[in-house]
């Protein structure tokens, strides 16, 4: 029964009839509520400029504190460059000493509210627990549950993954304590899923912790360490630590498939290619387009050899993944027109619909960012609504997607379907 006087929760999962897990935890729907789009109609860049002046900072001082160039700040404030990543908005808000909602003109939930509503506190508690007391589950059973967790994540059912992970972490950790060699891969994969979903939900610090745990468990095994490094790279990028992410992923790629790469098994090559793509995106995020292009070209060569076959490391690597990386790299360096062009090309490829739902929806959210940067609100709204149809949680639970929704909802004319999405995620007018 819906409580009177309260906005209905948004359930970001499509819950199956049976979870398939032997342990049960309290169901926690991934609900995100909040205030709304409204107040003044100033663009985000103008709000940034207003608060910078209030803090008596020059553009150069502000740029230095952000680790950006004065030109970057100037473009943001003039609206030439769109702020469409929530992590960047959070970093700016921290330097200015304001709530990110003041820059967005929205009442987005704080990380504490997100934790309370989507079950992140349960994951935080699980990661803080060192005395694992779960009964030792046979490896074959755990393998099935880890595989099920990956499948659930790839279908974009993040709330269900969050509910299952505390018990799965306990079970895989207990198994690893009794049989370290045989259970290391299961524990690394569980930490990877944990890190991935936390980064999605805007909890990158906690995601970095889970990824670091995966690295520790992987030890000297190059393949396991490589899969863990994928998670580290994603978390560091989400934290705005592009240079660190670049160093970690390039080093891991060299360990996974020493030169000549073509002599390594196909699965190792695909993992190496995934790490190179992560490194390329990290390079693009701190403005090194030449390095990003070089790394993506290396990954493209690997993808041409191995294709998009078996995926034992759960990387989703292949020619389409390479093209999506080119699109995201173009967004990061401010070439939104190129990003839109690459998006329109990649969705026509045969391999596009073979990607996991989570991967496709994430690519569409990135495409929406590109359309927004070139001022095509209708294009941004169209791909965002398409993403919502593929994996609703990717749009309704991710801060970066909600930032795009907020920008679109503020635009005029309002894009059909965006107003409904804004209401669903709690971005209603003040």
Automatic annotation (TrEMBL):
Residues 48-103 form the HTH cro/C1-type domain. It holds the Pfam family HTH_31. InterPro entries: Cro/C1-type_HTH, Lambda_DNA-bd_dom_sf. Residues 1-27 are annotated as: Disordered. This is Helix-turn-helix transcriptional regulator. It comes from Micromonospora humida.
